[in-house]
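hi! just following up on the protien thing from before. the input was this:
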Amino acid sequence: MYVDCAGLTRGTTVWVEIGVGVLLLLTLLQSVLLVQLWRQSCQLQQRVGALAYSAVHACTDVPTSMLVTALGRMERYIDTTEPAPAPAAQPSYELAQQLAREGADVEQLIARCGLSREEASLIRQLHPVGR
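and the predicted 3d structure came back as:
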């Protein structure tokens, strides 16, 4: 069905023009909303990309590896600079007995075997010279 625009009344023409104007405004509004949604979509894609990148590279965290390396260096430094604790000096009673039999005096037993004066005297009494 074909409608001749010349046959429309003035009032009808105004309503048609208003309708076309409203449709143009709605189209413009939709275009604006579409552009805003497209921008938000791009921003979200960038965020997702950044999160994916950080998730992939989280296992190779550079600061953590640097700390581990520094800790290893410190442990090696401590191992090389700190002398190992000397074992507790225990008196050598066998050596003291042998020296006492060979005629060593109390002072020599104290100095060479790490004995107390009382221990050295006792060893001299228990192991006289020539036995």
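The mean pLDDT is 83.
The helical segments are 10-56, 62-81, 93-101, 106-113, 117-126.
cheers
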